[in-house]
Amino acid sequence: MKRLFLSLVCSVGLLSAMAQGTDPQTAGPDKSKPVQTVEAACGQCMFSLKAPGCDLAVRIDGKSYFVDGSDIDQHGDAHATDGFCNAIRKAEVQGQVVDNRFKATYFKLAAAPDKK
User: Fold this and answer.
1) Residue 40 CA to its chain's centroid (Å)
2) What is the largest CA-CA distance in the chain?
3) N or C: which end of the chain has fewer CB within 10 A?
4) Judging by DSSP bridges, how do beta strands 56-60 and 36-42 pair with one another?
5) How far apart are CA 83 and CA 28, in angstroms?
């Protein structure tokens, strides 16, 4: 009976771990695909995209896209001096544009420039 209970607990834990999606913030890039360096900021505040609130966006080849797979709040205070609502930052990303949105599979924000 103890073995059955232990097996059940382990199975549930394994299934829940497998069910969670990969977090683009902590996942490493896929080495078989190129990593792009893009501009990242608040879509509404910095890229003039239309939607309520503040949402993470990237600008690729001069066109701006809202991001799915990474959230504006995962990268610090958006309203800080160097936050996404006040500054355009560089980011390394992997993913693709689907239905006019950037589906991120990897997202790494570059270090903020030194304040002088």
Assistant:
1) 10
2) 66
3) C
4) antiparallel
5) 23
Two tokens at 97?
């544009």
Q: What length is written for the chain? A: 116
**Phi and psi at residue 96, in whole multiples of 5°?**
-150, 160
Tens digit of each residue's pLDDT (9 = 90 or more) over 8-29: 444 544 444 444 445 565 668 8
At residue 23, the 3 state secondary structure works out as: coil
The four Cα atoms 49, 54, 59, 63 give a dihedral, to 10 degrees, of -10
Task: Read off the pTM.
Answer: 0.75
User: Who contacts 68 (Cβ-Cβ below 8 Å, separation ≥6)?
Assistant: 101, 102, 103, 104
Q: Evaluate whether 60 touches 36 at the Cβ level (below 8 Å).
A: yes
- What Rg value do the Cα atoms of the chain yield, rounded? 18
Q: What average pLDDT does the segment 90-110 reach?
A: 96
Residue 69 structure tokens: 């797979």
Cα separation of 113 and 104, whole Å?
23
